[in-house]
Specification:
This protein has helices at about 5-15, 20-35, 55-60, 70-85, 120-135, 200-205, 220-225, 230; strands at about 45, 65-70, 90-95, 105-110, 135-145, 155, 160-165, 175-185, 185-195, 210-215, 240-249. It is of the alpha/beta class. It has one domain (about 5-150, about 195-249): Rossmann fold (3-Layer(aba) Sandwich). The protein starts with a helix and ends with a strand.
């Protein structure tokens, strides 16, 4: 799968993905917010911002947000939402591997929620890491997420969500494509994620000027688990996601 095909998939998937997703909302979002702490007046870059979900949440907490995504459909949705609610978020349609419109050493923080899982090659992944390094201030923080390795061979088939591996899953087989299909209100879209070992996910950051601050293995709250059991069941026992907090050296 080439980067161009990946972009095409995200042009199609943008709208359906923008529908609030229970696992994002009740597992990853609280973990990201806790890990960032007070974001007031912080300049934050949302890498692969999609429809601007995190830009809006963090802007409400008085962060100064910039969202970048290569999908024109996503950026269109983000700008439409922005007009309705919030001033002061800047959106750019661009590949996050090359963001010449952003200044060096500018951002305090960056966030990338479930973005690097969609990047099909290590070469491209490293280009993105180097670009994030350029635009972050020294000591700046980036938090990234992916599916948790304890759950790497998950195959799921529900009415709402289907996840399949393209070939027999082996943990050590980095970049195995995972086919994902979401159906919401009868609208069904597919895209491809790429499994990476933790070594292949984290070490490129450590080799390119970052150090690891901590890992986070989020669980849903008891309340959310009870209310949205259909979507969250099992996530209290086997972590579905892992967040990695890194600091620019
Ligand atoms: C799984 S979605 C996550 C969206 C958003 N971070 C969220 O959690 O709501 C992945 C997003 O990354 C974007 N993306 C993937 N590769 C990209 C690249 N190389 N440059 C810019 N955006 C990219 C896609 O268009 C898509 O919006």
């Amino acid at each position: 799968m080439h980067n161009m095909e990946n972009k095409k998939q995200w042009e199609k998937a943008a709208k359906t993905y923008s529908t609030p997703h229970i696992r994002k909302k009740f597992i990853r979002t609280p973990a990201f917010l806790k890990a960032f702490g007070n974001v007031k007046n912080k300049k934050i870059l949302d890498l692969g911002c999609g429809d601007g979900y995190y830009c809006r949440i963090l802007a409400k907490k008085k962060a100064k947000m910039t969202g970048v995504d290569f999908s024109s459909a996503s950026i269109k949705l983000a700008k439409k939402e922005k007009e309705k609610h919030i001033e002061g978020i800047h959106y750019f349609q661009s590949d996050i591997a090359k963001m010449p419109f952003l200044k060096d050493n500018y951002f305090d923080y960056a966030i990338a929620d479930m973005v690097f899982v969609t990047i099909p090659t290590q070469k491209k992944y490293i280009q993105v890491i180097q670009e994030v390094h350029r635009v972050l201030k020294n000591g700046g923080t980036v938090i990234i997420s992916k599916g948790h390795p304890a759950n790497f061979n998950r195959v799921e088939k529900s009415k709402f969500y289907k996840l399949n591996y393209a070939r027999e899953p082996s943990y050590f087989d980095s970049l195995t494509p995972q086919h994902v299909q979401i159906t919401i209100n009868g609208d069904s879209v597919k895209w491809t994620n790429y499994h990476r070992t933790l070594e292949d996910f984290v070490n490129p950051w450590l080799k390119n000027g970052f150090m690891m601050e901590k890992i986070i293995e989020p669980q849903p709250t008891h309340g959310a688990l009870k209310k949205f059991n259909q979507y969250l069941k099992g996530t209290e026992k086997i972590p579905f996601f892992i967040l990695i907090k890194l600091k620019k050296k």
